[in-house]
Design brief:
InterPro entries: HATPase_C_sf (IPR036890), HATPase_dom (IPR003594), Sensor_HK_TwoCompSys (IPR050482), Sig_transdc_His_kin_sub3_dim/P (IPR011712). The protein has 13 helices and 5 strands. The chain is an alpha+beta fold and about 375 residues long. Helix 4 runs antiparallel to helix 5, helix 9 packs across helix 12 and helix 11 packs parallel to helix 12.
Length: about 375
């Protein structure tokens, strides 16, 4: 009898198993044909040959139509394209007509087809329409069982319609959740790719911005010293070559994803850059008091701060002070721009690195004039 709880439990377990296997989606529709066994038995035992043939034909067409309609609806759903409403309504009407043609031979067991109609309605129609269709089919079953002579109501058909609708609703929600999860994963993947592109762009900007700035300053200095002090000019040209090779190595390391800055190394590079720009450098000579976990961030501060001093400040002196929790880069130049925004690409990248490390960034005018960049790590 349709509506047996054990049957629904078995079918539900089978559906859950099938749903996890790609390429077996058609079984989601076909497995429900198990419930047509009762009308099939009654039709085969029917005495009238013509009605028996009509019933068998209608049952076979019903099964084929149901499989075709359900498969088509699932395909459209997976493609995120809704079938036209007239076509969906046609699906429902055709199944109802084929179920009605089974009545002469199958009797009240033909009401089993209402379960399939409700299942398809939940699948292809909006939830509100599907529920309304289920209520209508439930009313048809109850009225028919009470008004047609020889038909008896034991509650199984109504239970079947309700349970069938709930089962397909659960499957529909599972499909929707799966699709939403796939979309969310795709969005996360795209965001991760974009974030990695931004990170790589920041690194290249910081690497090449600093290195090319120093190379430019040293090349200009070498040009000025070419006639007055050829030996000093040759030394500066050698430094330019060394810096160019170091920048190329940094780019390669960044591409490989293994580059980490050294705070001590950045201080040495900063001193050389400042001297080449004829800016007096007041820099620390040791970094022992800075914890290991803060050194890479502080190294980025030195690189960005000194690059800005050399490029934009017009300063005569640059001072760097650091301790275990804070680093500060100051100069005596023209100070921040009137807007005071501090939103250059390098500073944006530095703020993002500081945020990840739980540090705060201060950008503004230094005491007594000039520019000040400070980063403090929360203790």
């Amino acid at each position: 009898m349709p509506g047996n709880p054990d049957q629904f439990e078995a079918v539900g377990a089978a559906l859950d198993s099938v749903r996890r296997r790609p390429g077996f989606g058609w079984l989601l529709a076909g497995i429900w044909l198990f419930f047509l066994n009762k009308p099939l038995e009654v039709i085969l035992k029917h005495d009238n040959m013509a009605e028996r043939v009509l019933g068998l034909t209608a049952l076979a067409l019903f099964a084929i139509a149901y499989m075709a309609f359900f498969g088509y609806a699932r395909y459209r759903n997976m493609a995120r394209v809704t079938a036209p409403l007239p076509l969906r309504l046609t699906f429902i009407v055709v199944l109802l007509l084929l179920g009605a043609l089974m009545v002469p031979a199958a009797g009240d067991t033909a009401l089993t087809t209402l379960v399939f109609v409700e299942a398809l309605g939940i699948m292809v129609m909006s939830l509100r329409v599907g529920v309304a269709l289920g209520v209508g089919l439930l009313a048809v079953a109850e009225i028919s069982l009470r008004s047609v002579p020889g038909w008896s109501d034991d509650g199984t058909y109504s239970l079947s319609i309700v349970l069938g609708g709930l089962a397909v609703f659960g499957m529909r929600r599972a499909i929707q959740r799966s699709m939403e999860l796939a979309v969310a994963r795709q969005d996360f993947a795209e965001l991760a790719v974009q974030e990695e592109r931004n990170r790589f762009a920041r690194d290249l900007h910081d690497i090449l911005g600093h290195s090319l700035t120093v190379i430019t300053v040293k090349a200009e200095l070498a040009g000025r010293l070419m006639e007055a002090n050829p030996e000093r000019a040759a030394a500066e040209v050698a430094d330019v070559e060394h810096l160019a090779r170091a920048a190329l190595a940094d780019v390669r390391a960044a591409v490989a994803g293994y580059r980490e800055l050294s705070l001590a190394g950045e201080l040495v590079s900063a001193r050389a850059a400042l001297q080449a720009a004829e800016i007096k450098a007041d820099l620390p000579t040791v970094v022992d008091e800075v914890p290991e976990e803060n050194r890479e961030l502080f190294a980025w501060v030195v690189r960005e701060g000194v690059t800005n001093v050399v490029r934009h400040s017009g300063a005569k002196r640059c001072t760097i002070r650091l301790d275990a929790q804070q680093i500060e880069v100051r100069d005596d130049g023209k100070g921040p721009a009137p807007s005071g925004s501090g939103t250059g690409h390098g500073l944006i990248g530095l703020r993002e690195r500081a945020d990840k490390a739980g540090a705060s960034v201060q950008v503004g005018q230094a005491p007594g004039g000039g520019f000040r960049l400070a980063v403090r790590v929360a203790s």
